[in-house]
Amino acid sequence: MPVVRDLRVLLRLPNFRRLLTVRLLSQSADGVYQVALATYVVFSPERQTSPAAIASAMAVLLLPYSFVGPFAGVLLDRWQRRQVFLYGNLLRALLAGCTALLIIASVPDWLFYASALAVTAVNRFVLAGLSAALPRVVDPDRLVMANSVSPTAGTLAATAGGGLAFLVRVVASDSDAAVVLLGAVLYLCSALSSLRMGRELLGPDQDVVQPHLGAALASTARGLLDGLRHLGHRRAAALALAAMTMLRFCYGALTVMVLMLCRYAWSASESEGLALLGVALAVSGAGFFAAAVFSPWGIDRLGRFGWMVACTAAAAVLEPALALPFAAGPMLVAAFVLGLVTQGSKIATDTVVQTSVDDAFRGRIFSLYDVLFNVAFVGAAAVAALMLPPDGRSAPLVVMVAVIYATVAAALGRWSRTGRVL
Question: Would you say 190 and 89 are in contact if contact means Cβ atoms under 8 Å apart?
Answer without folding.
Answer: yes
